[in-house]
Design goal:
Blueprint (H helix, E strand, L loop, with lengths): L4 E4 L4 E5 L10 H7 L4 E5 L15 H14 L5 E6 L1 H12 L4 E7 L14 H16 L4 H6 L6 H4 L5 H17 L2 H13 L14 E6 L7 H10 L3 E6 L6 H4 L1 H15 L5
Helix pairs in contact: 4-7
Amino acid sequence: MNLNIEIKGTGYPILCLHGHPGSSRTMSVFTDHLCQKYQTITPDLRGYGKSRPQGNFEMKTHLDDLQNLLAQYQIEGCLLLGWSLGGILALELALANPERFTGLILVGSAARPRSSHPRVTWQDLAYTGLAGIINYIRPGWLWNINNLGKRSLFRYLITNHTPQAYGYLAREGVPAYWQTSMAAHRALSGAISKGYSCLDSLHKISFPCLILSGECDRHITAESSQETARHLNDSKWICYPNTAHLFPWEMPEQVRQDISQWLESYLDTPS
């Protein structure tokens, strides 16, 4: 299918892949900054955002879509940046065509993702629904954050409950959740039930890699991200203390700075 795609800036291309639930909008924390020097290409994956699916699909279908996207735009060389599920897809793309890519940035992701998320209760769901709706109407309202947000499932996604982080949730997180199709939910659930690991194949990736993780991430643990970094030939691992899975929304300036410094220091690519 033809994916909905957002392209920003000019220069060396970076293919940016969002997580679940997500959309191209949720990657703006990276692309609004990177597009000042690079060209960012950010699709809504099949079943997400404005890329509406025709029936059910499997996770491997995303890879076919992305290969077609690269061919459509005649991209012979680029960087990869993937957040959460997007990082897993970025790894799979890199393993399938390592000669096509010059660098990889994984954000809250891993080659063998492991979770430490507690069991979800009905109280969690109730508080999350209320906190999400109120935050969408009044983003970053401290009363809502302190009385509902910190009791909701947001506490496993965010450690620093700041108005800035909740602003990202309202502007980008909630709309992305609403736009995520049931087919996308089913595809991910089916893949999780089978288990996943590509650790044994990471030796095929020879280009530089940057691995970013949140110390308190319960969705994809920092330990699993560090394990990925150890199995890569040329990698740098950064773990941000007192942050969770949505750490780019908790401390966007620091994350953007670290990515920019790595790009300038570790990669010999034209801007």
